[in-house]
Write a structure and sequence with these properties.
This is MmcQ/YjbR family DNA-binding protein. The chain has 118 residues and is an alpha+beta fold. The protein has one domain: Aspartate Aminotransferase, domain 1. Helix content is 39%, strand content 25%. It has a 6-stranded antiparallel sheet with strand order 1-2-3-4-6-5, with helices on one face. The chain is globular, with a radius of gyration of 14 Å.
Amino acid sequence: MNIEELREYCLSKIAVSEGFPFDEETLVFKVLDKMFLLTNITGELQMNVKCDPEKAIELREMYSSVLPGYHMNKKYWNTVVIDGSVSDRQLEQWIDDSYDQVVAKMTKKKQNELMNLK
């Protein structure tokens, strides 16, 4: 997966926007203004994704390319180095999980708003 494929996959999800709220190199994807993925647009491709705390630890133990979330709450976020050691399908699953984790924490009103956009 490259940066364009990552971007296209994220933007294919419902109610997703992108932006550079921190600096000119960190691309952030949000669902209804809640962040679910960050990635760098320069250097080695990596992404930060939200994860269930127990699963986050499990993934770090299973994959050398999965690390505690860089500059994030390491309990809930993983940094994934996208170096070809993990399949695109697995990366997409982690993106889906991150998106779902963020949606699950939204208010019922926001969740209903999202459902109405489908």
